[in-house]
Request: fold
Amino acid sequence: MTIREMARSGLPLPIPIIDAHTHIGPQYNAGWHQKPEYTTVEGQLAVYDRLGVDCCVTAPHEVSSGMMEEANLAARAAAERFPDRVYGYIFIAPYDGLEGCRRELERYRRDPHFLGLKFLGGYNGDYDDPVYQYAADFADEMRCPVLCHTWEDSPPIAQTVALARRRPGLKLLAAHQGGGTAQMTRRCAELMRDVPNVWMELCGSLNNTLGMAEILELVGEDRMIFGSDMTDLDVRYDFGRVALAPISDDAKKKIFAENFLRLLETSQMGTIRRMPVK
Reply:
């Protein structure tokens, strides 16, 4: 059976799948999908099991308030409770200044539970802030992924991509297809053409009129990364958009896990330790 056929039959997919964009913990906001039984990590993993999702990388909901220490402690606690299913991003925000940024990076840089960094610009300032610039230099040195929020050009997608332009070791994931709309996806794709260390993360595509096949034509199957925004959004939405897309199974395997795993091959931070045998 093809991936599309298995997904349509409701079978868990027997391929590696990594959800590279998540926020564990309950948060109730008007207009965001949130069902109480999915707001615990156990509930999230139960949904994953039905789909065949192996693991996630998370920056817990404290990120929306810029709470670095609390978000990173929550990520580490979840990773310890659910080894090989939950990994963390070191969350960085500007409110505690450079000293706070250095503290969090030093605390977790050698912690195997953490795979990269998470910036939530827009909610927490612009990426030209010295704290983000310092953390981007750190990511360049560590050759690790950085998941960068942008939505409807806030922060500007050009500013987001610029973080990677002069830092070849930094592996930047432009979240939400570059900004959540077809217009923003096309702008992001244009910027990506001459910045090879930028990938497009796909979650939150509810308002994007482009399908996955059209995004693939813009950026290529090697530069697309699967994420869901769980628990803010139901993982099944963007999972379905990839699994049911009219693209090859080889491309789907790259998007679901292979591209992200390749980013970790040269990283000096943590890595996915074990993928379950299906």
Remarks:
- The chain has one domain: 18-264.
- The chain is about 40% helix and 15% strand.
- The longest strand covers residues 86-92.
- The longest helix spans residues 249-264.
